[in-house]
Amino acid sequence: MAQCNGCLKDNINGFCSSCETILFDRSKVTPQLTFNWEDISKRIDGQPMGFSISGVQRKGFIGKPRGTELVPKIGVDEKSQYIIKPMLSRFNLPDQSPANEHLTMQIAKQLFGIKTAECVFMNFANGAPAYITRRFDYNENGEKLNQEDFVSVLKAADKYKSKTYQDVGEWLSPLNKVDFLRILIFNFITGNGDVHLKNISLLETADGDMMLSPSYDLMNTKIHLTDNLLALNLFEELEQTSLPLGERYVYTNEDFIEFGRRLKIKDSIISKTIDMFNGKENELFAMVDKSFLSSDTKDLYKKSVVENYKKFRHQKAI
């Protein structure tokens, strides 16, 4: 059965009309790109490239001139509208990383109402998989919005070790604190150990306020490497990021309740947020089954989620 390369809707070849509107301004775009990663990586006068997961997830910037498919080369006066990522350059199952990130982003958006960067799964001209996300740091008039990650906001010395999620949460507005709690629980359950300070940002609103940006770089990192349950400690006194695997503190829902209380979120709202994740396994697994992951990787993804749900629901001895 064919799925939309954006939202994974059934019986769609390519992109459904909704995804065409959201991602490509109603343009008809095929999921087969006309260029390869090398057409981006070999450019020396184009957009800069960057890295994310442990420094090995490459990314480039591409555009879409009016009336055409996505293109690797952007004119001098044109802005890059999309970020493109090829498969990982190393680690386990590197060719599964684009489908992994696409799936995880769709689960966050569709099942848990997390505001995310819009994204699609595509293939390069040579058939290699690609993850593409539309940039959210430009407004409808093409003007650049101010975006600031929490390395900058907190003046942190290191994106992993110098601060905690509590430090981030205490900086946020009351509404964003609830959003942040939901995002952290989601990442815990879906096995994302790479939500460091560079992957949490503030974005300027139309009114000039700085609010939590849409989530990005969400993926089940446990499929590709053995890393921490979360990239940062929830609290300074509960260490789990730098100790040997067998000595790390394992978080449960009780710790996320405490996290919400430290951010002064009402108990009723904390309970409602945690309840959002209960009874969602079957819906989550259904999305995994519809994804562009290989059959074996789908099994690994679901196994990881089952294990993380067990940790989340574990009751600590009094």
CATH fold descriptor of the largest domain: Phosphatidylinositol 3-kinase Catalytic Subunit, Chain A, Domain 5
Q: Are there runs of 5+ residues with pLDDT below 50, and where?
A: 44-52
Number of helices: 10
In total, the number of strands is 8
> Strands of the biggest beta sheet: in what spatial order?
1-2-3-5-4
Query: First CA to last CA: what distance?
Result: 50 Å
By helix and strand content, what is the structural category?
Answer: alpha+beta
CATH architecture of the largest domain: Orthogonal Bundle
Could you walk me through the main structural features you see in this protein, from its secondary elements to its overall organization?
The protein is an alpha+beta fold and 318 residues long. The longest helix is centred in the C-terminal third of the chain and has 19 residues, at 295-313. Residues 44-52 have low confidence and may be disordered. The protein has 2 domains: 17-134; 147-313, Phosphatidylinositol 3-kinase Catalytic Subunit, Chain A, Domain 5 (Orthogonal Bundle). α6 (174-189) runs parallel beside α8 (267-275). It has a 5-stranded antiparallel β-sheet with strand order 1-2-3-5-4. A 3-stranded antiparallel β-sheet has the order 6-7-8. The chain contains 10 helices and 8 strands.
